[in-house]
Amino acid sequence: MNLPPYPDFPTIASDTITLRQIEPTDIGDIIEISFYDALQATTLYLAAEMQAKINKDYLNGESIHWGIADNATDKIIGTCGYYRGFENASGELGCVLLPQYYGKGYMTQAMALAIRFGFETMNLERIWAETTIDNAGAIKLLERLNFIKTEIAIDSVTYGLKKP
């Protein structure tokens, strides 16, 4: 498998967005969507600390975390990446978007780019995602991207996508 870290941090682009490395100057824009181990940042300091942990995980080959940059402004409007997994050629894909960008197709594009990267560059055979059972937007997104529901728990649902 070809897993992180890579000689150069992968940057992937479409016409409207670019998945790129999050820089220290980006942290202030994404405090409200900065998470690590299911904890949310509440200050710039905590968001920077969380990003440092995410960067360390990448350097340890345990994850790859992209900022989703709007090509018109280069502003980070969300994040996506592979945060857990890699056992058995499998990876967990997660995402979060600033609320003012919901419903504009940004996350569909970002996830499609990340999925292609997972299958083609990382050589994953299966990608999975988990969300809360009441997160209708995430469920709709995953189903739009052809993920299939594989498990339902009391408060969460898991979806999977196999390599074509």
UniProtKB/TrEMBL annotation:
Keywords: Transferase. GO terms for cellular component: cytoplasm. Residues 17-164 form the N-acetyltransferase domain. The lineage of its organism: Bacteria, Pseudomonadati, Bacteroidota, Flavobacteriia, Flavobacteriales. PANTHER family: GNAT FAMILY, PUTATIVE (AFU_ORTHOLOGUE AFUA_3G00765)-RELATED-RELATED, RIBOSOMAL-PROTEIN-ALANINE ACETYLTRANSFERASE. Pfam families: Acetyltransf_3. It comes from the Bacteria. SUPFAM superfamilies: Acyl-CoA N-acyltransferases (Nat). Transmembrane segments: none annotated. It comes from Flavobacterium rivuli WB 3.3-2 = DSM 21788. The keyword Transit peptide does not apply. This is GCN5 family acetyltransferase. PROSITE patterns: GNAT. GO terms for molecular function: protein-N-terminal-alanine acetyltransferase activity.
